[in-house]
Each structure stands twice: as C-alpha cells, then as structure tokens.
Design goal:
Elements: H1 2-30, H2 33-49, H3 59-92, H4 97-127, H5 129-140, H6 145-152, H7 156-180
Helix pairs in contact: 1-2, 1-3, 2-3, 4-5, 5-6, 5-7, 6-7
Length: 181
C-alpha cells in the first residue's frame, strides 16, 4: 500500500509542477480553452498509466510532446470536419469561373510550396540530421533557442553555430528555387 501512496504523491507533485505548462502548450496549438483543458487531462491520464515506465529525466519532454501531439491530432480531426463542411457549403453555392480559376491557381501554388518545403527538409535530413532537428525545433515547433538547446542537450553557442551553418547550406542550395516560388 505504501508504494501506491508514494507513486500518487510523486504523480501529484509532477502534476502540480507541469499542468499549467501543458495547458499553455495545448492552448497555443488549439486556440480553444475547453479543448486545451481536455488535452491536459488526457496527457496526465496517459502519464499516470505509464508513470513507472517513463525515465524520470524525460518526464518534462514526455508531457510537452504528448500535449503537442494530442493538440495536433485534435487540429487534424477538426480540420477534416471543417473541410467536409466547407465542401458541402461550396457545393451548394454557384461559384463563378473566375473564382474557380483563382482557387485552382492558389491551391497549385500551395502544393508547389509544400513540395518544395518537403524536399528541402528531406535533403537537409540526409545532409545533417542535427541541422534538421534544430530547424524543426525552432521553426516548425516554434521552440525558443534555449528550449531547443536544452532538448538537444547542447549549449546555446553550439546551437547558434549549427543553425548558422544550416542556414548557409540552405541558402547555397535552395535560394534560386526559393526566389522562383
């Protein structure tokens, strides 16, 4: 019985320590207070289930990544629902030929940009996985330089140096194509 009580006390301490940050992370992505509260509860529920299996040094990263992933899942599901509603609404309306052409060109340009971005990230990963991780953490996940350095286990100076080299490589290899898009 003592072991369960100790586990609950440790869990309670961790919950109090990180619940606000987990909520803020999910709120940042979802922009929905109610859903952020739900996500926070789900994160800590899953954490409680796997509490004994998680490395104590990785608890913060586990909680924050779980909050981000559950937020992404919610956004994906919400986007699908909105897309279905939008498709139904557009089908009911008459759309002029000009709007259709404009929509097509805009969608085509977005696809080109997405393909270009995916190509860059794939080639960057092949060139240097650390550069890829740094750019992903800072520009895709929007972590601060301090947070990215901490997560990668490197100093800020090393992070800045690698970030500089990664940007130089990107400019050298992709500036012409970027300017064309």
């Amino acid at each position: 019985m003592r072991g369960d009580q100790c586990k609950e006390e440790r869990f309670e301490k961790i919950y109090r320590q990180y619940k606000d940050e987990v909520y803020r992370i999910s709120l940042y992505y979802t922009k929905n207070e109610q859903e952020s509260q739900d996500i926070t509860q789900k994160v800590f529920y899953k954490f409680y289930l796997y509490f004994d299996k998680i490395n104590p040094d990785c608890i913060k990263a586990y909680l924050f990544r779980s909050a981000r992933n559950l937020s992404y899942n919610w956004l994906r599901d919400t986007k699908k629902e909105l897309k279905n509603e939008t498709v139904d609404a557009v089908a009911e309306q008459q759309v002029s030929i000009h709007n259709v052409e404009e929509s097509y060109l805009h969608a085509e340009q977005e696809r080109d940009v997405n393909r270009f971005f995916s190509s860059i990230m794939r080639q960057l990963y092949e060139e240097n996985e650390t550069w890829y991780e740094i750019l992903n953490l800072i520009y895709c996940l929007e972590l601060s330089h301090d947070e990215a350095a901490e997560q990668l286990g490197i100093s800020k100076t090393v992070l800045y140096s690698k970030l500089y080299r990664a940007k130089q490589w990107l400019r050298k290899n992709f500036s012409d194509e970027y300017n064309r898009l």
